[in-house]
């Protein structure tokens, strides 16, 4: 069992055979694919992964990866701190044929090398766990509202069918 300092590289097959656990922390700044989250670079990323085999003797990795990221609120366009947690449940596969043979409810993890970079796994899982839309529960910025109700605005717009209505009235 590894705890505290996370290794840079993993040997997933070996870890699965040993039923190893990896627990520790890193920072967002150590995950290159998360560089776009500039305001989150000092945030802690907590990692708890278990390697082993499932009931069908397939090698797998399960656990969690979690952090907090500053995302843009889609209502007010201000930053909102968002908890991001990835629940990892992957079955290791070694070629395309194994991916095709895997039941649909299982997520494959294509392992092509003996050693892999841990940051790649963490980045991928966190990116997949990002919310589709980030929003404050209550935006700190008051959004500007139109003085006119929406119905009034709609009635002032040009109606593309007004010409047809005029032609119909002429025919009657």
Protein architecture, described:
- With 172 residues, this protein is α/β, with parallel strands linked by helices.
- The chain has one domain (2-142).
- It has helices spanning 12-18, 96-101, 118-129, 150-156, 162-171, and strands at residues 2-5, 9-10, 21-27, 44-53, 59-72, 79-93, 107-110, 116-117.
Quick structural gist:
The chain is an alpha/beta fold and 172 residues long. 24% of the residues lie in helices and 34% in strands. The longest helix has 12 residues.
Topology:
Blueprint: E1 2-5, E2 9-10, H1 12-18, E3 21-27, E4 44-53, E5 59-72, E6 79-93, H2 96-101, E7 107-110, E8 116-117, H3 118-129, H4 150-156, H5 162-171
Parallel strand pairs: 1-3, 6-7
Antiparallel strand pairs: 2-8, 3-4, 4-5, 5-6
Question: Which key phrases capture this entry?
Answer:
172 residues, alpha/beta, two-stranded antiparallel ribbon, 8 strands, elongated
Instruction: Report the span from N to C terminus.
Output: 87 Å
Classify the beta-strand content into a percent band. Answer: 25-35%
Strand order of the largest sheet: 1-3-4-5-6-7
Indicate the percent of residues in helices: 10-25%
Number of domains: 1
Q: What's the gyration radius in Å?
A: 26 Å
